[in-house]
Automatic annotation (TrEMBL):
NCBIfam families: HMG_CoA_R_NAD. InterPro entries: HMG_CoA_Rdtase, HMG_CoA_Rdtase_bac-typ, HMG_CoA_Rdtase_cat_sf, HMG_CoA_Rdtase_NAD(P)-bd_sf, HMG_CoA_Rdtase_sub-bd_dom_sf. This is 3-hydroxy-3-methylglutaryl coenzyme A reductase. One of its GO terms (biological process) is coenzyme A metabolic process. It is an enzyme of class 1 (oxidoreductase). One of its GO terms (molecular function) is hydroxymethylglutaryl-CoA reductase (NADPH) activity. The lineage of its organism: Bacteria, Pseudomonadati, Bacteroidota, Flavobacteriia, Flavobacteriales.
Amino acid sequence: MNHKPVEGFSKLTKQGKIDWLVNEYLEGNSEYQHILNQYWNENADLQKLHDEFSENTISNFYMPYGIAPNFLIDGKLFALPMAVEESSVVAAASKAAKFWIDKGGFKTTIINNEKLGHTHFIFNVEPHKLLHFFNFNLKKKLMEATEDITANMRNRGGGILDIKLVDKTSEMPNYYQLKASFDTVDSMGANFINSCLEQFGKTLKQEVAVSEDFSHEEKNSLQIVMNILSNFTPDCIVRAEVSCKIEDLKDDSGISNEEFASKFKQAVTIAEIEPFRATTHNKGIMNGVDAVVIATGNDFRATEACAHAYAARNGKYSSLTHCTTDNGIFRFWIDLPISVGVVGGLTNLHPLVKFSLALLGKPSAQELMSILAVSGLAQNFGALRSLVTTGIQKGHMKMHLLNILNQMGATEEEKQHFVTYFKDKTVTHHEVINEFNRLRGQ
């Protein structure tokens, strides 16, 4: 089918957008209009709010919003909100929380809270000359030029922490950076950081233009390429950990505590040294992290990018979690770089985000960092516990069973039959189909 490009799509009404899509791409099938309408909120004002979160919106896309209870974090009990569609994520997190609740729970430490941004520029000048200019003139001017932008943030205890000149000319001709670190307190701070950086770019250009340190040719060579925050925040780190005596590890899988601890540590070590395993290992961690990130209105793409960059920081992709079994003590922990906020963005607008933050006791940004790291650690513990004992498919496929049955159009009575049927069996797609056909006499 050959489709025609559309002019002014964004200017069409919501109904106009839908009509065009259905007629141009869906052969005018009104059933698709009905599908979109089913997901509109009956409250017109609430629907309008959702429509304005993004551009060219025509409906809402639902995800399950679940609760993982019994998380003991730094002595406080939490129920974590999780927005996630993958089977067994909430169940695995809940099971891990319950496992650790009588063993002291999860302990967290904020290692650092710095966020970064850069002004990237090209300047055909000797590095020593630029460094002198930066130290004795530019750095002070950059701080002064952003005082109005940073005033409110400084009043809340944050602001610009430092600015450095970085010489990257060995990697790209005439390439330099102004690398700035920020404390954005309880906001994620993207807009604040980018506003500061854009002012850095303007100030750099202005100060070079009036400086007597550079020749006319050097001044003309200055090019501000871009001013942008970095989602890689290796200095915004939270540690979450659990520990107990190996003799207290009591697992119901039938293997001894010592064997469980040994196999668990081996599984983590494999993820530390083998990138193929580390990728799936860390994906499981982010199952737990992202589910809470989404539920609290934060940017899961940023947390993903940062976590995976951090996992490869030493030149080889590796596990985000680590384990030791020294002196009879089992210890399992994660160091997670993560930048989140509890003010601004969707946190003040989306009703379910407000609910999530209220459920968590209206945490500060640092407290939310701790909760997210714990969620990731719990998810990883649950996955590894299954992998080294019963295998991952037993629990995962039991959670996936209802998805298979819904696809096959099973009745509620048939669903209950299958839950009983697989009570002591591992669920497989093939076996579900066989039993379904037998049940219906096919």
